[in-house]
Queue: 2 jobs
Job 1
Amino acid sequence: MERYEALQIVEKQLTEKRYTHTLGVAETAIRLAEKYGADVKKAELAAIFHDYAKFRKKEEMRQILIDEQMDKRLLQFHHELWHAPVGAFLVQKEAGITDEVILSAIRWHTTGRPNMTTLEKIVYLADYIEPGRRFPGVDEVRQIAAQSLNKAVLAAVKNSIMFLMSKQQPVFPVTLDTYNDYIQNGEDV
Ligand code: DGI
Ligand code: FE
Ligand code: FE
């Protein structure tokens, strides 16, 4: 699918603000793919579609999680976490994207996961550092991203966990698994 067609599909699903964020993620993902030797077109498409399900109703997402036998633990956690796996499902069903490399980058963009593919890392990181993001620590992660993809993903995961903890929010187990995997198995971290 070409960029223009993908953007047209996604624009209908998102608010203006979220669409602008999506353009930022796409631009950043392209840059990271060029730098770290991933498929640039796939990185762009995954980024364009990553928040496809962001504004779906909670009940619709809950039903898809159940029907498609996704991780049951998600139901006990904040529904903000649901748009990533539900998005991967809907992008396949409604937009006809079948490339599993792209779908998995969408599926894991919020929590990461152990043993991430390069494209998963790129979309995860691009979502975190796209130019519209402004929160404490983001500039440091941007700088690290210029040096090492793995170091930057780890820094983003760490910041996310510490942010959730500082607000006394629960941390989804897969987010912690991602962190542990980087610490225990990560090269170049
Ligand atoms: O969809 P975006 O806002 O672009 O970004 P995202 O998909 O990375 O994150 C969506 C939300 O999910 C964000 O408000 C933080 C939250 N989140 C991320 N990881 C965890 C989490 N919430 C909980 N409870 N636990 C997590 O591990
Ligand atoms: Fe998201
Ligand atoms: Fe996003």
Job 2
Amino acid sequence: MNVLITGGTGLVGSALISCHNKDVNCIPINSKNANLIDYNDSLNVISKIHEVTPISVIIHCAARVGGLYRNIREPVEMMNDNLLINTNILNIAHKLNINKVVCVLSTCIFPDKIEYPIKVEDLHNGPPHSSNEGYAYAKRLLEVQCRAFRKQYNRCYYCIVPTNIYGLNDNFNPEDSHVIPGLIYKAVNAKRDNTELIVTGTGEHLRQFIFSKDLANIIWWSITEYKDYDVPLVCCPENEISIYNVAKIITDILGVKGVKCTMAEGGQFKKTCLDTNTQLRELGYNKEFNWTPLDIGLESTITWYMSIHNNK
Ligand code: GFB
């Protein structure tokens, strides 16, 4: 099975490649191979690949992404680029008669003011948090675009909705990054400078985190086993943790002398979702996923980061 992975060298793409079955031939592409915002360039690159190795599935991980502060800074690019990338990938898949596309969304797209835990059917029942509107509406529309291709052309284009992902090959640039790579970047500097780790915000905000490899396992399973395409599959463990406690685990691993919080903007207080195993049970699947404990996932992410980055 030839599987094209957009965003193939990023956080999720590299995790998918690190744990695929032997009967799968992964074909990763990234922004160096094709500018997915440009339809003709994308069609040219993907159809050339398709001629040589006929693609049966696309796992669409490519997106303009970033943490809270990048989303607050760039709502226009977050919406425009993701709308163009997603529209191009689905239209090209359809044009090349590729019948299955898995699209990666994010739990920040769910309505902000809602009863917790969030259920999938709530997806379009209210506005997302103001801090990430651009990204959230573009990704919500991707769910609608997939539904349209299923309805009109009977395509198996479906969505999975992970909660905050972390792991190897993430973006550690503190200006754009998500919280875990941002804190690891700052913690390594704090260790060097013998200072405290500064958490941006009060540290009270709550998040559910999924290790990239655990997400990859769910995506590979879904390609052959998941049939409820009308129900976007939420990918998240049960546990929810405060940002302060995440910072504490990171400082304990690196031996940093302490954590200090600030009064900065913290975005959505929480986005608690029903965990994957409960969702699958409710849908009648006899499947239980195991989760990498957060301290173990953080340890291997930090070890990887230290191995490739020496902080100037
Ligand atoms: O991961 P994060 O940037 O995004 O921030 P969201 C999570 C929480 O960590 C926020 C706090 O409450 C931040 O205030 N935080 C503390 C930090 N220190 C830091 C730091 O050094 N860097 C960062 N980035 N945060 C995003 C959405 O929301 O979730 C994206 O904006 C996407 O579109 C992503 O969906 C998964 O969880 O707030």
